[in-house]
Design brief:
The protein is an alpha+beta fold. The chain has one domain: endopeptidase domain like (from Nostoc punctiforme) (endopeptidase fold (from Nostoc punctiforme)), CATH 3.90.1720.10. Helices cover 29% and strands 23% of the residues. The protein contains 4 helices and 6 strands. The chain has helices at residues 7-15, 30-42, 57-66, 72-79, and strands at residues 81-83, 93-96, 99-103, 107-114, 117-124, 132-135. The chain has a 6-stranded antiparallel beta sheet with strand order 1-6-2-3-4-5, with helices on one face. The relative contact order is 0.20. InterPro entries: DUF6950. This is DUF6950 domain-containing protein. It comes from Sphingomonas yabuuchiae.
Length: 140
Amino acid sequence: MYRKPDWEAALAAYLEPLRLVPFAWGTHDCCTFAGGAVLAMTGVDPMAEFRGRYSTELGAKRALRRIGRGTLVATLDAKFEAVAASLAQRGDVVMIDGLLAICWGAFAIAVGREDDREGLIRIDRHQWHDARAWRVAYGA
């Protein structure tokens, strides 16, 4: 799975309609959001096996045990090359305090809530605590 030449435009086009879509387990949560972003950039959905398989937090945990590698971190480690969060580049998958997001340079984009607005939120790099990252590879 490699980024397409037009990955930046494809990622921006993926993000735009999601700006105000609220969080929903199994359809618009951190796992499906990050998987959709990777799909937009590469044409491959790394989370396809999880789609439609859960609708609650408990269901998501069960799906990770049943379909994945037991945890979200272990599942991502099996799908991507892990890199230090400080080395995350635009388009890479990052996990911040257990929440999956997409690196956008000086910040990450994730599904969440800011004040009374739900949808995509920005998390500045200086707020990345307990962060991990995985590289979405460029073409060989």
